[in-house]
Amino acid sequence: xxxxxxxxxxxxxxxxxxxxxxxxxxxxxxxxxxxxxxxxxxxxxxxxxxxxxxxxxxxxxxxxxxxxxxxxxxxxxxxxxxxxxxxxxxxxxxxxxxxxxxxxxxxxxxxxxxxxxxxxxxxxxxxxxxxxxxxxxxxxxxxxxxxxxxxxxxxxxxxxxxxxxxxxxxxxxxxxxxxxxxxxxxxxxxxxxxxxxxxxxxxxxxxxxxxxxxxxxxxxxxxxxxxxxxxxxxxxxxxxxxxxxxxxxxxxxxxxxxxxxxxxxxxxxxxxxxxxxxxxxxxxxxxxxxxxxxxxxxxxxxxxxxxxxxxxxxxxxxxxxxxxxxxxxxxxxxxxxxxxxxxxxxxxxxxxxxxxxxxxxxxxxxxxxxxxxxxxxxxxxxxxxxxxxxxxxxxxxxxxxxxxxxxxxxxxxxxxxxxxxxxxxxxxxxxxxxxxxxxxxxxxxxxxxxxxxxxxxxxxxxxxxxxxxxxxxxxxxxxxxxxxxxxxxxxxxxxxxx
Length: 498
Ligand code: AMP
Ligand code: MG
Known about the structure:
The chain is α+β, with helices and mostly antiparallel strands. It contains 17 helices and twelve strands. It has helices at about 5-10, 45-50, 55, 60-65, 135-150, 190-195, 200-215, 225-245, 295-315, 320-350, 360-370, 375-385, 395-400, 405-420, 425-435, 445-455, 460-465; strands at about 25, 35-40, 75-80, 85, 90, 100-105, 110-115, 130-135, 155-170, 170-180, 250, 270. Strand 9 and strand 10 form a beta hairpin. The radius of gyration is 23 Å and the shape is globular. The relative contact order is 0.11. The model has no long low-confidence stretch (mean pLDDT about 95). Bound molecules: adenosine monophosphate (AMP) and magnesium ion (MG). Adenosine monophosphate binds next to loops.
């Protein structure tokens, strides 16, 4: 048995998407790269997928993770999809620089896509070169794994590799390839693709596929398609509530970047908030603030309406009935979103059971944070350590608000409210620390790790990956990573990975 055959045995692909009709994708192989070099393998994830990390680190493993070698059983393909980008309809997008290698069923029994990102041009590349560069690949690695550490549903990163090529962007950058692992890459834009072509058969096949793969219970429902829409809306509500509770800004919530299974995908100019600002935008291409932090729940609903619109022909032949079923299904978004956000913010404040006035306390804190430029993550984390009875440590939080009388008034209300709970300081602190992370992938640190990596120093990148695995645990050796950026370290803009 040669190396390739040996390694191929380690991948037991079962490629359900490639069994769909040919018009769902284009089959092609990755473009070979000159000098593949592994930057990092996510060994834990490899094990969860039933892969052997030691084998993946061998030269042949690295050839596979950089697209130079296709393991037996893989059936590489670029998926077709369309989408609304910044509200504008684009009838054909598709994987322009990614290829689905195949699907693996992990040790948890869940089927996942293994996809190479940056693997060369495809028929969907339009003017693009099909490649990715080192900076955005490391950004996706750090942030996606950071999201996973925080418990936010997300596509994962199995590996990052250098290609040995230089790729032209604003200047020449090292080329890189990321192996992305997701519950699937079907997007709102995949449904829009078939709907716009009036390919109702394709639309139905896609919906049935998604029901089988992600929402088997919807299949048992009287109307499986409206049940599917309902389930997608529920998952999105859960997801966006988490984004809002941890201060995550996706940056490009186009319908082609909204995954049906409810994971965060397509990490481009995403970032976490430092200071709490609802109108915060990092993305260099979001001139109108469409995808600002505070707009995300509304945009998710807008995207769900696009999905609902695309699915109308499946839901009923009678248009009025289809529209009312779509509205009803999507309506669940705001109910679940409110529920999840409310229970989440209350837990962040250390309240166990919601009582009248709690939401006002939360809203007032957020308002004072915005007014006074307080750091979102640190405010909540430091609140964990305050005492119910004594205000001696209040300055740890107060300092984040500058000289704020409003904060002084607020903290009195918070303390009064906590007295009702009857939890002692240590118990409340440990409960609060399970929902208020000490560490989030702060922009300035991510940028610094990328700068270092461009100078062949991956030390900070490695450290960040380590610390973000357990973001709720205080890790004293990394306590400097908790700090917000100094004025000169602040990142005001992030750029797309293209
Ligand atoms: P994104 O902004 O990453 O969601 O990408 C939007 C669309 O542009 C998708 O169809 C991508 O496949 C495509 N795309 C992005 N970057 C490139 C690139 N460098 N080469 C080819 N296609 C790309
Ligand atoms: Mg995309």
